[in-house]
Amino acid sequence: MSRASVTPPTARTFVMTHQKQTNGYYCGPATASMIAKYKGKTYSQATLAGSSYLKTDANGATKWALKVMAPTLNKIVGTTEFQQIQSPTLASLKASFVNNIEGNYLPVAIDTYEYANSAHYNGHPKSKNIGHWIVGHGYSGSGSTLAFHDPAQGVWSGVTVPETFSYSASGFHQWVTTNGIVA
């Protein structure tokens, strides 16, 4: 018996409750908390920053190298779907958004890295090296454009960071090659 393949829609965006990170290094806990909330679970950023989850408090950041985001999301959401994808190719970035959002009905956690005095996204200050977690909550053009929630409101003085933004996948890809995505 053969099964006809189903083509995913060319666009889908989750409506999510945005959260601002509660301090300058809680972007990881804010990202995990937003994803949990989308799935009907409530976890505070402080809880998620603790030693049972993201270990953010102990390390002063949610470190990509510790590989804590995927197991934390799997635990708090009650799934096994989240996996850490190191330095995804552009094709993998786009496919991960479409597959996670459409196939698994799950947002994507993204650990970006912006180098000082080079391109930065969403109003982040260009004079700084910035490692930053954000939430991918949508795509259009079959993954050619990606939609995000950025928890960094108020982190940098004199800088306005919108809660949500969209970016072409090809342009955004540069910021996931140092770390990666959890999808």
TrEMBL record:
The lineage of its organism: Bacteria, Bacillati, Actinomycetota, Actinomycetes, Propionibacteriales. InterPro entries: Peptidase_C39-like. It comes from Tessaracoccus flavescens. Gene3D superfamilies: Cysteine proteinases. Residues 19-152 form the Peptidase C39-like domain. It comes from the Bacteria. This is Peptidase C39-like domain-containing protein.
